[in-house]
Amino acid sequence: MMTDTAPTALPRVALVTGAGRRLGRAIALGLARAGWDLALHYRHSEQDAIATRDAILALGRRAVLLQCDLADDAAVRLLAGRAIDALGALTCIVNNASLFEYDSATDFSPALLNAHIAANVTAPVLLAQALHAATPQGEQAVVINLLDQKLYNLNPDFLSYTLSKAALHAATTMLAQALAPTVRVVGVAPGITLVSGEQSEEGFTQAHRATPLGRSSTPQDIADAVVYAAGARALTGTTLLVDGGQHLTPSTRDVMFLTEPRNDDPNNRSTESSIQKA
């Protein structure tokens, strides 16, 4: 049966947060190849965002850059409107940008948890709220939240990050209930997808293969899942696990540590990645 790839009669315009590099770039390019115009959010990675924009323009799609600190509630509230002003419509938001800093129960701090909540929960919820308010009656839009397979396979690493993603996972269901039928809300949960922090290429390759399918996700896999979720009009309130079955393999440590020397404070710090290990 054929799938209607257009979520709405409105123009296909998507806002992707953290779109300049890594997984965000792959998602933005995947949407562009599928016929979407793009509003590309970035915080600090302006040159990367410019390169992504130029690649999208070369595909014959429209693309604009939108700088914003996702920890700034007031700025986040304006972000969807800025995309609409620039491109004339907005029918999809991909909440891809994520704070991903290491902590554990022994060095937990409220300040770090609050920072994760601001970037990984508050900003996505505000953007979903704004998209709902901006979508005309009778039309439909979609929010896609990037989550993490570890929510289905918990371990004690990255405590604040994991708590924030668990909250976003719950919000995916609750927003789908509250914003229907105007806005669909879907989660996409990658496995280990890109080298992160101090991880070696060899360690990444070993970890990437340690799944039931013998491979975890690639950036293209995640981009394909996002494109599918953006167009699957009967899909809402659920999460697509795109991880090679990694969530089926219990682990006492985060997968990125299983093939590297044990280090309880890897000091992986980024505020503008899509899940840095993804």
Automatic annotation (TrEMBL):
Keywords: Oxidoreductase. The keyword Zinc does not apply. The keyword Oxidoreductase applies. Residues 268-278 have a biased composition (Polar residues). GO terms for molecular function: oxidoreductase activity. InterPro entries: NAD(P)-bd_dom_sf, SDR_fam. Residues 258-278 are annotated as: Disordered. Belongs to the short-chain dehydrogenases/reductases (SDR) family. This is NAD(P)-dependent dehydrogenase (Short-subunit alcohol dehydrogenase family). The lineage of its organism: Bacteria, Pseudomonadati, Pseudomonadota, Betaproteobacteria, Burkholderiales.
